[in-house]
Write the structure tokens for this entry.
Amino acid sequence: MRSVILKRKSNNQFVIIIEADGYRREYVEGNFETAKARAIRLKLILGIK
């Protein structure tokens, strides 16, 4: 199963969690718009609608 999750870690930090085929990675972004754009790009790359 593949998933991309965008969560708020603290007031100015957002975490993007990628889980795909036993692989898990977390990215921390300081800006919501940047985090949202990265999450959308990752979903497109992984083929998630």
The helical segments are 32-46. The beta strands are 2-10, 13-20, 23-29. The chain has one helix and three strands.
